[in-house]
## 1
Amino acid sequence: MNILSYMETYGHEQLAVWTDKEAGLRAFIAVHDTTLGPSLGGVRVWAHPTEEAALTDVLRLSRAMTYKSAAAGLHFGGGKGLIMADRTQKTEAMMRSFGRFVESLGGRYLTTEDVGMTSQDLEWIAQSTKHVTGLPVSQGGSGDTSPMTGFGIYTAMRACAREKWGSDGLGGRTIAIQGFGNTATWLVRNLQEHGEEVKLVITDINDAARERARQVKNATVVGPDQIYDTPCDVFAPCALGGILNDDTIPRLKCQIVCGAANNQLLTLEHGDALQKRGILYAPDYVVNAGGVINVSCEVDSRYSEQAAREKTARIYDTMQRVFGTSKRDGISTARAADRLAEERIASVRRVRRVHMGKA
Ligand code: NAD
């Protein structure tokens, strides 16, 4: 991989590398774009087989964060951290060292939890840097992001229902859920709390999760592969990325796809394929922005769940703008979301240039 060309092509500002042999740390931080504000994104702990695989991952994930924050109307750019280790190798020394790495960037990157991290790890990082968010509630932070992500998925689903069926109520509809983990559980809780009498079809690869799903009112549990063939109104992918692809799209028997998983489309062209089949696709990073909105509310001021909820509720309006752009420009909803995010960044960049006397 030619890193500099890759970064130029995809608009990355910075890639930082850190080693600390004593602490057993090898890490990268990618800052994609800071036009809207300091870059924000979690740090992932993952034992990539090669440095190249780790670099590709951190660069790709940092760019996705730029789009997510821009589409959510946040004043943050996109960044991501990556610790090349297995989660079993984590130590306090390693996390404190990563904190020093974050601190060395002087606030250009704000870190938070991602795959392979726990709130304890984040607390250790916070010993070495103030550029941390998403700390536990006991530390004055915003805590677990899943409840807000679940509320965001429910909000996006209502916007989809209005677009597809003319009313945002979901009562009487069948929702097929792939992966019954944190976000899906909070989605179901939101449906129940809002009195939506839906039928649920749930799958998971984990026995305990399937057993939990069996206890949910109006829920049927199916095998992991059956979920793609399940007749339903809404398919909610809440597990893995890349699951909307050449094999699965022809099998889907739904009218809407709206779920929490990141990078659901294997490629952008799969968004076009869904559109061709008449399936309304809710762009994943718009749908699942509740988590980043929640942690962003901890940065500027004292965290308030009410404020985070109000901002997350705006996902409804963002979805409507995505649908409007998709229809106006004759493009898929996936491309429309990208366009909205890019337009926002470009307009702020233009204003900044004018202020700096460059235009
Ligand atoms: P989780 O680990 O709590 O739940 C995922 C569930 O999916 C697990 O129960 C797992 O067993 C199941 N699963 C894995 N592979 C599967 C498969 N092939 N078929 C069926 N089930 C499978 O994770 P989560 O926090 O609910 O996150 C789900 C997705 O949403 C992830 O892609 C995550 O990146 C994304 N996301 C989460 C948040 C958040 O706030 N937690 C925010 C934004 C995006």
Note: The chain has a mean pLDDT of 95.
## 2
Amino acid sequence: MTDRYCVLGNPITHSKSPLIHAEFAHQTQQALEYTAQEAPLDGFADAWRAFVDAGGRGANVTVPFKEEAFALCDTLSHRARRAGAVNTLILGGNGRTYGDTTDGVGLVRDLAYHRVALAGKRVLVIGAGGAVRGILEPLLGEQPSEVVVVNRTAAKAEQLAHDFADLGSITGGGFDTLDGTFDVVINGTSASLSGDLPPLPDALFAPGAWAYDMMYGSEPTVFLQWAGPRGAKLLDGLGMLVEQAAEAFFLWRNERPNTAPVREVLRQSLNYS
Ligand code: ATR
């Protein structure tokens, strides 16, 4: 029987993961099936177990189930424990579920792909929700000179800075605490989804700085539209999506796909969806 994988989310119809994993499977000549499965909002754990009972070997987990996935795992990776979230489930021996998160490594790999330096750089992260919690450990691992987290609700940014302080130089606060310029500015808020722009000062970008939005769409996000005229080089979250998927594929199949051609396929699919 062909090995089965899926992405579990709600809603799930617009997920790009089946397309990405089909490309990876084709490229690496692995026989596997990968589908999108909508889990009921009150039935995530049952949906995973039903998938396993039907022969499933692993799953990706997306909104809004990453914390629930974390809660149901029998074993967790170190980085998942730190993130408090799981985006990759793996069925282990004796029917046990192992959980990992590949979002943060996906971001860092995408930045490396675009030759965005992090070591010794001043990095601003906007937002303090689950998505940001998931990227801080890999980001601090690249040894930036400083990571500043700002958020609409200042206390959440302060809490994150406190929780990750053992990994490097990190501070947190409200938008009113912003000071100086940054080499890399990462928007990890969900504000882009509603077309909102966080309240940012005009002089935010150091010369040669990058603006990165963890969201993506067929058009540049409002954050990127704002950052472009202010001198930043722009990246959206599509590469991060492909890289987190590649890391999940590696965890399941022990083979690392080449992400470059898949980035192209995905970018084209956005233009026609
Ligand atoms: P996710 O899993 O995407 O991180 P989340 O945990 O709900 O979702 O976090 C959403 C983040 O986007 C938060 O940092 C939120 O700010 P608050 O903590 O103050 O709620 C931020 N956010 C959402 N809409 C926003 C907006 N219109 N302006 C600024 N920040 C916004």
Note: The chain has two domains: 3-101+239-271, 104-236.
